Amino acid sequence: MGAARSGSTLLGVLIGQAENVFYAGELCDWPERDGLSSIEHSQEFWETVRARVGEPAPAARFYKRLFEHPAGIGRGAAHGRLRVGYEALTLGVLEAVAGVSRCTTVVDSSHYPRRAQTLRRLLGRRRVRLVYLVRRPSSVAHSFRRTGDKGAVSFNLYLLLVSLQSWLIYLTHPRSQRVIVSYEKLTEAPLEVGVSALGRSLTGVDPSRLALPPILAGNRFVKSGPQVRIEAADRPASLSAIERLTDLIQWPTRTAEWMASRPSAF
Questions:
Q1: Can you give the pLDDT at residue 245?
Q2: What are the backbone dihedrals phi and psi of residue 198, each rounded to the nearest 5 degrees, phi first?
Q3: Domains of the chain, with CATH numbers?
Q4: Which of 65, 98, 192, 241 has the fewest CB atoms within 10 Å around its CB?
Q5: CA–CA dist 56, 128 (Å, integer)
């Protein structure tokens, strides 16, 4: 769970190297992509998954907006029949991914807190491990500004809503099945963070040489080549005054950052 641009792909690729773990990427995009991947080395895997699940219904393209995205709060309740299809498809895709990959653990980096809520309702709280991934708010704001996706006001509203939702779901989840980790610590001590996120050893995993799994879709890390390398990330030097102000405004995320620095507080 957590905001976009917080390093979920990097973390997913890392823990996806562990034995019997498959990193699937953002499964919330499965319906919009018609179950197919645009990444060449992933296409055969996802074609097999799609053959097991079947073609998504036309209404499936609305699932993410209604039942997962923060903007859909309050709207999903009026679409009970669509929710039945959404939950059936969500569970079907997970089962197919587990079956085709032959792995006992599937990592879904969709990062929407409402999706996490759905997964634990479908699978049971003890079968879902929640990883609340946080990154310094000013750095996330800087990333959004570079791409022009969100302005200062819309970004702060978005991050505040996502972080409050994440906290609500995190605090109502079993302690043994939840953890908060930070992007900054991930780049400094990837194996330590990976063990915390997965809840078990990452024996044999080399953070400087990670093979890309056949994920559904990928960002620039995944599309840059056949391997991903985790390196220490420098804090952006060109932060604007407004971006720096977000570190003061976004107290729920900063609280999560503090929790991530105190493992005993998990």
A1: 87
A2: -80, -30
A3: 8-265 (3.40.50)
A4: 241
A5: 25
